User: What shape does this take?
Amino acid sequence: MRFLFYNFLNMIYDAFQKNAISCAEKNQSVIVYAPTGAGKTAIAEHIITQCIAQNQQVIYTSPIKALSNQKFRDFTAIYGEKVGILTGDVSINAHAPVLIMTTEIFRNCLLEDPQRFSRVAWLILDEVHYLDDPERGTVWEESIIFCPTHIRFLALSATIPNTKEIAAWISKIHKQPIQTIVEQNRPVPLHHSFQCNNRIFSNFGDLARNCVDFSDGKSGRKKSKYFVPNKISSLIQHLKDKEQLPAIYFAFSRKRCEELAFKNTGFNFLSFDEKRKLEELFSLLLKKFCLENEPSAKKLWPLVKHGIAYHHAGLLPSLKEVIERLFTSRLIKMIFTTETFALGINMPAKTVVFDELKKFYGYSYAALRSRDYYQIAGRAGRRGIDSKGFVYCRINLRHIQIKQVKQIILGQPEPIISQFNISYATLLHLYKKWHDQLYAIYPLTLHFFQSAKRQRHNALSLLRLKIKMLKDAGYIQNSQLTVKGIFASFIYGYELPMAELYAAGVLEKLSSIDLNIVLAALVFEPRKNQLHVRFSHDVLKIHRLIFPAIKNIVKKEQKYHIYPLSKEPNFFLAPIIEKWSRGEKFSHLCSFTNIDEGEIVRYFRMVIQILRQLLFAPAVNKDFKITIKDALNMINRDEIDAEKQLREGI
Assistant: This one.
């Protein structure tokens, strides 16, 4: 029987998949580095199937909620009720054999109750290159470091060139071998073309020979003789003529995506029959998700009739789901989207177009990293459908140089570099267990593994300063967590501002609506056009109530030279979260703010996540728990209720 099973494997799997599965069968952890679309998920599905058969539990983690939700839908279609999900704002079948979690939630559970994972045999880390994400990287390191030693790892990524280094780190801290499987070849090869000076060049050599970088005349470089603006209509006509649709057009701003979509309604990509089918499907999906009267859905109608759509984080999650389903129907031929569409979500096309090869990285615009380029380009080419995937880069030589284009496309992908910066909540959990011996944790980090002596010294010094500050601020006394310290250890991301408000007795004085306003002020990150808003008298009163306590902890961080500082509140969302908490319809909220609908949903769901953390924090009294539950009921409804939408969307 076993012989027949392995013969079956040989028939249906590629060589790298068989190698990874063979390692898993030997109970060996595995890191798989393979191009997007190569079939990494098939390895995960094999392990999941084996765990279910052997009555073992498996955890599947992903970096973002949207990807977790998609995996929940995908795996539920395969494994039925054996699948559950935990993402902070969603909890469905939380003790299922196959449990999908965001990495943050997995890390939190490891710190709070590691015994709950006693039956877990495998941890699947999807998109493990998030180890070097500036905001989330630390969470990934902590998830690996604190994972129980009996659990095996399957780590998956399309962009992790230093695979062996990461494997060596994991092997060292867990005292177990971890195999590396590297697959360089894509099942559907990519062909890279360029639009420059409104001409199409079919390879990099033709681009370099025919287009010369601009210069200011001081550097000594040649200056281009002619400049012709790239017309998007020329490129799209080329794709249509060459039968290279459907295409995903990536732009790096929401506004740009919508502008480009409407700019190209002169194209009609659909036959009469396709148009009829697409309109019927769109109507059906809008009805299913209760979006028939939603203005943002109505706005899409003129585009959908032409086989065009756009997709970005500013849209309602339910509307994004509709657009994704339209795209997978293969009736949408051109979708304009931001880079979030490239992350894990299984939406391949024949062609990918880059609007430009520069994007905003934290503080400035810079040329795309090679890793980011191939993460996005990997959406081109559908396995089993296309023999080749096509990638087009729109090049404006006033903004980017030929040598930069060459580096992006032909250079080596950037290695994964640790972004370790341990949170206060994690430190408090560690101190509770290990006291001052917690500094022995740092040598287990990827940061320590990769760093030189001075970098290690600086990182350890920062840890000591954080502990010293926590002691000074009353979170730790006599080598024990205080009540305030215990409270803070359960509030991830906003632990110190919330703990200061708790210790000052401010939180218990708030009504449920006021509590929602305060939490929205803590989670909100303003854009440049969102810095000023007129506040009501009640909001100003709340601001005066909470500001002294939060300012106090920021001063202590400055005193100990701890950066980044804890976030200070911004009340930009106050008017709309107050109206929502009082029962206002979601469709009316946008008339009171310039924030995109999807952004409103995201921030409100972040508030829900903190409310749930508050609800289970051991230091919270019964009366305040009633306030928290009321706040949750006020906000977690209709368009904001992620769990309801996920259940209904299956």
Q: What stands out?
A: Residues 424-649 form a domain with the Sec63 N-terminal domain-like fold fold (CATH 1.10.3380.30). Residues 537-559 form the longest helix (23 residues). The longest strand covers residues 120-126.
